[in-house]
Structure to design on (189 residues):
């Protein structure tokens, strides 16, 4: 019996988008990453914010990265990157869910773009029967239905996945916020 085991991770491909009421244009709207930081040094303490902006009226929303932090405890290279508005660092913070939670900024998971990154793949060969086992890690807790995740990684449609689930060709044995685990008695990739 040969056996295929694959693990994927769902990775956001762009900064999270914040949904909230805007005091500038007075409606519920989306705020996007401007990829700019604001740094305010006062004595030996520093505040650093990642600046988000309303997509309609450009009203800003500052997400605190550091608050009243000792300058000496901020890595020098990172501090330089804040001052030069390093786009890569801004995007990295824009995909850090804990930053949004800390700032009580609601992320719009419906608008999320993401991809599946294969972490590893193991194949054990013996005989002609084939089975497979897949795990999809979702460390950011993106709200994607299990059938959709399975369809995406197997390259099937959602209706094909539902049919195979009903036929016992795809068996989901674990599904929670951070992980989806399923297997099949046949290799269907
Ligand atoms: Zn606005």
């Amino acid at each position: 019996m040969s056996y295929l085991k694959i693990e994927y991770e769902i990775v956001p491909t762009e900064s999270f988008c914040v949904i909230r009421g805007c005091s500038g244009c007075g409606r519920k709207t989306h705020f996007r990453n401007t990829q700019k930081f604001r740094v305010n040094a006062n004595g030996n303490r520093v505040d650093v914010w990642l600046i988000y902006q309303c997509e309609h009226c450009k009203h800003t929303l500052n997400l605190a990265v550091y608050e009243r932090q000792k300058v000496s405890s901020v890595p020098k290279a990172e501090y330089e990157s804040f001052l030069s508005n390093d786009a890569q660092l801004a995007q990295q913070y824009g995909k850090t869910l804990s930053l949004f939670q800390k700032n009580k900024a609601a992320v719009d998971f419906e608008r999320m773009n993401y991809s599946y990154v294969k972490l590893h793949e193991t194949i054990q060969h013996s005989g002609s029967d084939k089975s497979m086992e897949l795990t999809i890690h979702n460390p950011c807790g993106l709200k994607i239905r299990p059938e959709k995740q399975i369809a995406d990684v197997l390259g099937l449609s959602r209706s094909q996945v539902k049919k195979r689930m009903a036929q016992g060709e795809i068996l989901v044995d674990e599904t929670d916020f951070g992980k989806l685990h399923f297997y099949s008695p046949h290799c269907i990739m």
Q: What stands out?
A: The helical segments are 76-83, 87-94, 97-102, 146-154, 158-166. The pocket of zinc ion is lined by residues 22, 24-25, 29, 54, 56-57, 59 (CB under 6 Å). The mean pLDDT is 91.
